[in-house]
Amino acid sequence: MSFTQQLRRDTAQLRQQILDMPFNRDLAAGTLPQEVFRGYIVQDAHYLEGFARALAMAAAKAPDADAVAQLAGSAIKAISVERGLHGEYMAQFGVSAEEYEATEISEACDHYVSFLLRMVATDDFAVGLTALLPCFWIYHEVGQKIAAEAVPGNRYQAWIDTYASEDFADGVQRMLELIDRTAAASSDATRARMQRSFARSCWHEWHFWDSAYHMRGWLAPDAEPSAKRMPAIAE
Ligand SMILES: Cc1ncc(CO)c(N)n1
Ligand SMILES: Cc1ncsc1CCO
């Protein structure tokens, strides 16, 4: 079994939970309230800028020219998706450049982006690289599933088409190959950190959607503590 197949197997339950989320179910049905999608797209545009920075930083740490070009190329693509797809939806929903800039990044978005930048900046290239994988892989998986179920005339079709596309699949495939090559050249201890980095990043994908669906900003000091807390991941 390849390293990335192992990552897939280890996170099967969480990835299934993501596929079953109400955000994704309602997106496929076209019934996701527009104000929820509007809030999501603004946060996701901010996310993509942070994600592109993390990719560019990973590019700078990459071991060879092919990997530098691949990761820097994905950084450019992430910005062009933000400008194209997200820009289009923001224009449609009447989000001005000023409103976009003035919108505070949500707790979930900030946490995910901070996590990616930290993993890439302070851990080994292999570990930071693996933190970047769920962004590619999970979106493609979700995009494909939704594309198969989407009702005709779905107002979120442009989003679905982007993530279900062959072009996006190509980026996912190249990332899987780079990670399998990197894992093969890494120690057991590094591979174990890559696995944890991947699992945590998958959790951030879940958290980002959950936060968007409930239109959450930041936890207030007087808020009830959430009942549902997962135990810290065991060693
Ligand atoms: C949170 C998140 N993860 C992944 C992608 C894929 O680009 C995205 N747009 N947003
Ligand atoms: C992961 C990702 N998300 C938007 S663009 C991009 C890179 C595709 O190569």
From TrEMBL:
Domain Thiaminase-2/PQQC: 16-214
Domain of life assignment: Bacteria
Molecular function in Gene Ontology: thiaminase activity
A Pfam match: TENA_THI-4
GO BP of this protein: thiamine biosynthetic process; thiamine diphosphate biosynthetic process
EC numbers on record: 3.5.99.2
Annotated function: Catalyzes an amino-pyrimidine hydrolysis reaction at the C5' of the pyrimidine moiety of thiamine compounds, a reaction that is part of a thiamine salvage pathway. Thus, catalyzes the conversion of 4-amino-5-aminomethyl-2-methylpyrimidine to 4-amino-5-hydroxymethyl-2-methylpyrimidine (HMP).
Assigned protein family: Belongs to the TenA family.
Entry-linked PANTHER family: BIFUNCTIONAL TH2 PROTEIN (PTHR43198), SI:CH1073-67J19.1-RELATED (PTHR43198:SF2)
Protein's name according to its UniProt entry: Aminopyrimidine aminohydrolase
Organism this protein belongs to: Paracoccus isoporae
